[in-house]
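QUALITY CONTROL LOG
STEP: pairwise intake check
CHECKER ROLE: data steward
CRITERIA: each record must contain a sequence immediately followed by its structure tokens, with no blank fields

ENTRY 1 OF 2
RESULT FIELD BELOW
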Amino acid sequence: MGDLVELRAVDQAGLLRRREVSAVELLDAHLARIDATNPDLNAIVTLTPDLARGMAEEADRRLADGGVPPLLTGLPVAHKDVHEVAGVRTTFGSPVYANYVPTRTTLIVQRMQDAGAVTVGKTNTPQHGAGSQTFNEVFGVTRNPWNRDLTPGGSSGGAAAAISAGMVALADGSDHGASLRNPAAFTNTVGFRPSPGRIPSWPTKDAWATHSVHGPIARTVEDVALFMAATAGPDDRIPISIEQDGSLFAAPLDVGWDDVRIAWTDDLGGLPIDPTVTRALQPAKAALSSIGFDVHDASPNFKGADEAFSVWRGFIYARDFADAVRKDPDAYKETIHWNVEYGLSLDPVTIGRALELRTRLRNRILRFLDEYRFLVLPTSAVPPFPITTEYPTEIDGVAMDDYTSWFATCSHISATELPAISIPGGFTEDGLPVGLQIVGRHHADLDVLRAAFAFQQATKYWRRRPDL
């Protein structure tokens, strides 16, 4: 049964459909893995075995009835603890919500459950998803399965650690600056930031918001495609919804790439990168050429990306947390205070300038991608760092301005609103995972998955597993 949890989600789904394993048996295998590994890793912070068993039994009834079951029927999943699940404790990693039990369910979770997924629990996250290191006052710190003294990243760090350790087949997360991609890079998993509106974010205070998106973490690209097929699609409440059904992602991933021009950059035009990461990714560049890609050293001009990202992030935090922080300042960590204070300092002229900078950036990137099909770069500028370090304060001798600066390889991409994926890209000399990021054209989400799949098949880095 232990071997079941090591299988890809698509393989588990195949076993279920052929009735070679029951959903209850598959659940039991994953609960056993959780019992064995979660006490050390602290990835799943609220376990829901009774809820999961009821869902698994219902999945077995569906499978026994014949016909075509929903795509995720019987697959064990976990939900990020900033995503509400009706009737299940949802803390947002905050002591303010330590005992909060919502009556509503976040749309991405609802679509997973409607597709037959089996909810086993909630995954750890920093307070309100602020930070790319997963710890909070409610549940403590999450550890990386590859080295328990290191972080799995954040803010979807609990999800990535759970996937990497085989606790669940699929997990949802969210990504504003790097929160799906950095954890994937640190745990040898796949984290996909879809185009805004591909999986509509609901509930939300801003139906037009494009910075933060919901998406999957999984072990392989084909698992991500399965997740997207089950959860993507428009919602009338979100006007930026993309009017394409999730079935788009059921299309074949294996396509040819001969002579397709792509841009490779080691540092996104001059960002500080740890040499350990640069060395680890050199074989990846050769692998892309072996696939057939026409690889060129090139980078767009990311002038203004820092300001565009920081201003809008500050605006969002001021909107969402200013009143709460004033009311109970001791309940919120320093990085939330910093974001709120920065956001409250902004004036309309500064906000307007940030919007203009983002527009110019977007247009430059689109022109660049007219020449190149993809932009390929490191996911993270550093390898996984100690759990005692909240964030890197310097990279390769360069001091970081604030707690967001170190993940600029991702946040610069977030500012463009283009689809991006982090896939297993190699390993450092001491065996730690390093992620490779692939950025695609406007709404070319399937295209990004196909390119990532080609790299995955050429390298098979995903097959390397942590020593549990």
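ENTRY 2 OF 2
RESULT FIELD BELOW
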Amino acid sequence: VAVSRDRGRTWKSMRGDLPERQVAYTLIQDHVKPELLFIGTEFGLWVTVDEGTHWHQLKGGLPTIQVRELDIQRDWEDLAVATFGRGFYILDDYTPLRAMTEERLENEEAILFPTREALRYIEQTDRVGDRGDGFWTAPNPPYGAVFTYWLRDGIQTKKELRSEAEKAARKDKTETPLPSMAELREEDLETEPAAFIVVRDDQGTVVRRVKADRKKGLHRVAWDLRWPSAAPTDLSPAKDRAPWDQPDRGPLALPGFYTASLEEQSDGEWKTLVGPLTFEVEALELATLTAADLSAVEIFQTDVRELRRSVLGAVKLTGEVKTRLEHLRQALVDTPEADPALMAELEGLKTRYDDIVMQLTGDRTKAERNVFTPPAIVGRVERIASDQWYTTQAPTATHRQAYEWAADAFAAQNAKLEQLVADLGALESKAEDAGAPWTPGRMPTP
């Protein structure tokens, strides 16, 4: 890799700190920042931000392979990378590299690079099931606002910091520090720190916290331009989804200006590492029936999201109530000292529970026998949300009527559920007094 500044009369090496055996096949120069160059070598893709003094390998999923051709798509500032035998790859929006300097990488703890405007539209579901096995496509770039950030040292746990200190001691041939039992206990009990891109609107209100990679180096993460889902918190491992199966999401945020900050969450505290960075969400407005008053749509969708949060939370609570009822029934059987009247009281609670569940989720007896049953509260709310979350048009009159009905019906059932939980707690106290074995929801007393 060489450069001539006199039209080829003399040449000077630009190898810099490029490792040995990196045979170069292709080179391309950025059309905005001349010091930014990419080369394709025998073993991958490399970039320099200081005209060859220092080189950095770009990986990001790129296999170890010959990179034979490079080209820049200037409309979207993408780098096309053609390899030998492994197809070609696209580095979407490499413009953050223009803002990167060796001095910044050495001296700044974290860098949040500028991001281009985020285009707001309804993303088409990838329905690959009917294309056959001979049609293949690569994934599209992430939808929404894509943030590129750099962490010099990363956000480390106490155990990771100790491990680094031990490696440094071995390298320097000094005595390896021996942790105390108290320090090891702190490591075992520590909640793993995390990094987030925190998005706020132009009023400073938090819209979304997007989980980000806490390891050192260059990373990317995308915000899907939506408010978070209001579904109950679920800590179970992620499952494989069909291409047409949408994850649970919230409604779209309004077009306009937002800010993003890179923040650390550690030991129960939030710390801003870098930011805020201002960016714009721009609506394409390509739909025929796009809503005229987006603010009114947002108000309605916010109401729906809040109702959905409450309704789905109530359904989860009924599941917990069912568990408590079932365990309490067996505990009363196993308690010889229990008054038989407690079992009758339990069955009365079970009857009230069944009625509330039927009003919330529907008549299962009819549904299992293909008998028509009108939509229940959950069904109406979920239908409104599924319609509104994936359109840019205003809510229909049917949507608004269904919301009013569901809100009124839920208010009545929620009051019944609240009273049921209180009465169940009273019955559990009686079971505790009778010496019943522990059941979920009870605090044992000596």
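INTAKE CHECK: passed for both entries
DESCRIPTIVE NOTE, ENTRY 2: Residues 294-333 form the longest helix (40 residues).
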